[in-house]
């Protein structure tokens, strides 16, 4: 099964697949949280979406509450926070486990044989064919030159 065929659910509760959501675009898949010291990275993710969205790229936010309960809100609360605080206009998925026995199949594929997710805002760059081309640690900012360079080579 391709990563693009994995069933996911949008934050609004609509079932889809990553492939349907991306429509052939490259993506930066990021586990996000509203009450984390790294939450201001949302601003940089919105900027990436603005800069590269029309060039075949999208950010996909994946809310996760596994790291000290830093994403405790309901889907509605998460959406409200993201849109009013940061102007998020990229797709958000339903709250998801990224580690442990309940790890979502999307994260099983993203991680592959790699290490568990370290913290909120870990980033996976996926090309339009669904291949993971890069992984970035949580503290790597969305405007980091290495991340931007990898993104530009991918789209």
UniProtKB/TrEMBL annotation:
- GO MF terms, alphabetically ordered: peroxidase activity
A family per Pfam: GSHPx
Biological process (GO) annotations held by this record are: cellular response to oxidative stress
Q: Which InterPro entries match?
A: Glutathione_peroxidase, Thioredoxin-like_sf
Q: Which UniProt keywords apply?
A: Oxidoreductase, Peroxidase
Q: Would the keyword Oxidoreductase turn up in this protein's UniProt record?
A: yes
Active site location: 36
The entry sums up its family as follows: Belongs to the glutathione peroxidase family.
**How is this protein named in the record?**
Glutathione peroxidase
Q: Please report the organism this UniProt entry assigns to the protein.
A: Acrocarpospora phusangensis
